[in-house]
Amino acid sequence: MTSPQLLPPVSPPAGWASWREVMDVALRQAHEAGSMGEVPVGAALLSAEGSLLAQAHNAPLSLNDPTAHAEMLCLRQGASTLGNYRLTGCILAVTLEPCIMCLGALVHARIAGLVIGARDPKAGAVLSRLKGLRLPFLNHQFWVLEGIMAEDCGKLLSSFFLRRRKARQGLLSP
Q1: Residue 108 marked as a ligand binder
Q2: Out of 38, 71, 97, 146, which one is annotated catalytic?
Q3: Nearest CA to 78 among 48, 100, 104?
Q4: Three-class SS string for 150-169?
Q5: From first to last of its 174 residues, what are the pLDDT tens digits of the chain?
Q6: Does 60 reside within a domain?
Q7: Can you say how many angstroms the Cα of residue 132 is from the centroid of all Cα atoms in its chain?
Q8: Is 99 annotated among the ligand-binding residues?
Q9: Residue 135 within a domain
Q10: 101, 111, 145, 149: which one has the fewest Cβ atoms less than 10 Å from its Cβ?
Q11: Would 50 be classed as within a structural domain?
């Protein structure tokens, strides 16, 4: 499924064989987050030319920062690398559909596109809970490509939360 406003490119930027290859970078970051006890979400930011500008994973617990979502950290790294908070032409790949905070940051950063692994039925602000790009007051639009490695991304999250619930019930060690 795509954004109703803009169509995503069929292929990723130069240097990447497929969108799966791009998502795999984000998924490795998600695995790292999970191993640290963080919700396993990862992101990767590409320039329009295909350079990997940044990669990050969720870190709100370890950084004591409620804004330390994978997307936010990736955008910060990318902006620092480019010396500009406007990430025009850049593409963000993320294992889980962004929340409303991250959607706002993506709009302000002026990214060109968003590649989503799994939808977030609880807090997804792009496609699931809120059709965020249809909000009439947004001053920027970007294309959206969803479902890249969705099963892998979804299974990682499901297994993480299952382990966490069992640990809380005393069935597993955390």
Answers
A1: no
A2: 71
A3: 48
A4: HHHHHHHHHHHHHHHHHHHC
A5: 444 457 888 889 999 999 999 999 999 999 999 999 999 999 999 999 999 999 999 999 999 999 999 999 999 999 999 999 999 999 999 999 999 999 999 999 999 999 999 999 999 999 999 999 999 999 999 999 999 999 999 999 999 999 888 888 876 655
A6: yes
A7: 15
A8: yes
A9: yes
A10: 101
A11: yes
Cα-based angle 115, 119, 125 (whole degrees, multiple of 5): 85
57 marked as binding residue: no
CATH number of the domain where residue 95 is located = 3.40.140.10
CA 4 to chain centre: 19
Domain span at residue 145 reads 19-171
Within a domain: 6? no
Question: Positive or negative, the Cα torsion across 133, 139, 145, 148?
Answer: negative
As for how many domains the chain has, the answer is 1
163 CB-contact burial (10 Å; exposed 0-12 / middle 13-18 / buried 19+) = middle
